[in-house]
């Protein structure tokens, strides 16, 4: 039964792990926001060497406004400027990502304010010193208190908490999305972040664009590129000074890789099941040889060839089903362990268990047919005389 146990365990484990990984990828895509495109600055050259992406400060608030105004499928176009900054509240401190945004950014990311409120238009326009924080900030700075109305400093600038964000969990890069502070973009540009590494106060880290129709994503990328190239006066075949990314593409590719690996391992598991079936057939053939006198005795007292055939088929089926049940239990345990270690949801599909055990039974019957047929063809007189 060992081949059946290994094969069924592998099938159940890989189907469950694949389902959990797929659920984790789907959740990551959901936390990013549906139909999201990112426009990021390009890379600049220094001393003949091309620096990392994002070092060429080319994106501005006017670019975001033009995308929102001129492209019909752009539901929102939200600018963002960010930097890691130290936070201080009473005797507690924390270093985290401080991002300047407008209210459209939360819409693009489909990010709800769990407690308090979002920025008003007046606060964004006037550069008010107010902040919306993630749940990690509440724990680290305010020891889990509600946080609304609390004050803290970003650098040397005091801010008041007006909202706490709903939990998002880990992002695609493995960093907690809840470890963040959002402030009005105008405040970030004028009071907190300012000029960083030679960038202007207007230069953005990226623009988040929420597309109204999922089927228009590719067309939207082309329209954004054409619009920004026109605005940045890039002519001919000159390279763009920005790049457009779909953050869900990386996660979708990751999910596809997990599915491909799962299919490969299921195929290997199927081979293991076939090997287990061959083992069952060989054992049943040996059993027929060793129980020849028993078969002859049964036929002598009235058992038909059909009865003998069913006896050996049922024995082969029971061997396979017991192996299938043991394998399903081991596969489920392995899936739970892998999901716990990887931090994925534990999704053990009942259908995977049923299909794996059903396939094991099918293997048992298939490979038990020949031994059963051979046993049923024995001559009872010859069988009784068998030594």
Helix content: 40-55%
Number of helices: 12
Q: How large is the radius of gyration?
A: 33 Å
The side-by-side strand order for the widest beta sheet comes to 4-5-10-7-9-8
How many individual β-strands? 12
Tertiary shape: elongated
Describe the 3D structure:
By secondary structure, this protein is an alpha+beta fold. The chain is built from twelve helices and twelve strands. The protein has a six-stranded mixed beta barrel. It has a two-stranded antiparallel ribbon with strand order 2-3. A hairpin with a 2-residue loop joins strand 4 (74-89) and strand 5. Helix 10 (305-342) packs antiparallel against helix 11 (350-376).
Concise account of the structure shown:
This protein has 387 residues and is of the alpha+beta class. It has helices at residues 2-32, 61-70, 103-108, 121-126, 135-142, 185-192, 217-231, 247-290, 292-300, 305-342, 350-376, 380-384; strands at residues 36-41, 45-46, 49-50, 74-89, 92-101, 113-116, 130-133, 151-154, 157-165, 180-184, 206-211, 242-245. It has a six-stranded mixed barrel.
Show the helix and strand layout.
Blueprint: H1 2-32, E1 36-41, E2 45-46, E3 49-50, H2 61-70, E4 74-89, E5 92-101, H3 103-108, E6 113-116, H4 121-126, E7 130-133, H5 135-142, E8 151-154, E9 157-165, E10 180-184, H6 185-192, E11 206-211, H7 217-231, E12 242-245, H8 247-290, H9 292-300, H10 305-342, H11 350-376, H12 380-384
């Amino acid at each position: 039964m060992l081949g059946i146990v290994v094969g069924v365990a592998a099938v159940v484990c890989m189907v469950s792990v694949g389902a959990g990984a797929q659920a984790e990828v789907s959740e990551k895509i959901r936390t990013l926001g549906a139909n999201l495109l990112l426009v990021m600055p390009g890379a600049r050259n220094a001393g003949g060497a091309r620096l990392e992406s994002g070092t060429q400060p080319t994106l501005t608030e006017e670019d975001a406004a033009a995308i929102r105004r001129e492209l019909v499928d752009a539901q929102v176009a939200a600018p963002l400027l960010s930097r890691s900054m130290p936070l201080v509240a009473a005797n507690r401190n924390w270093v985290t990502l401080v991002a300047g945004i407008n209210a459209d950014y939360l819409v693009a990311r489909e990010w709800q304010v769990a407690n308090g409120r979002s920025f008003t238009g007046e606060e964004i326009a006037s550069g008010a010193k107010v902040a919306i924080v993630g749940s990690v900030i509440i724990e680290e700075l305010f020891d889990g208190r509600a946080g609304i109305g609390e004050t803290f400093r970003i650098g040397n600038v005091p801010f008041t908490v007006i909202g706490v964000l709903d939990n998002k969990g880990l992002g695609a890069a493995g960093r907690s999305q809840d470890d963040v502070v959002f402030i009005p973009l105008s405040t970030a540009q004028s009071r907190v972040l300012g000029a960083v590494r030679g960038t202007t106060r207007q230069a953005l880290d990226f623009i988040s664009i929420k597309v109204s129709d999922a089927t228009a994503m590719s067309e939207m990328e082309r329209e954004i590129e054409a619009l920004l190239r026109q605005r940045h006066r890039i002519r001919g075949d000159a390279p763009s000074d920005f790049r457009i990314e779909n953050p869900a593409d990386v996660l979708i590719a990751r999910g596809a890789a997990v599915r491909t690996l799962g299919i490969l391992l299921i195929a290997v598991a199927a081979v293991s099941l076939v090997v287990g079936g061959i083992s069952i057939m060989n054992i049943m053939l040996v059993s027929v040889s060793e129980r020849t006198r028993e078969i002859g005795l049964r036929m002598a007292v009235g058992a038909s060839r059909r009865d003998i055939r069913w006896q050996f088929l049922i024995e082969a089926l029971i061997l396979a089903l017991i192996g299938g049940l043991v394998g399903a239990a081991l596969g489920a345990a392995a899936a739970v362990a892998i999901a716990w270690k990887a931090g994925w949801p534990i999704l053990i599909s009942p259908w995977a268990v049923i299909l794996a055990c059903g396939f094991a039974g099918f293997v048992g019957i298939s490979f038990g047919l020949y031994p059963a047929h051979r046993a049923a063809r024995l001559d009872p007189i010859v069988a009784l005389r068998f030594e």
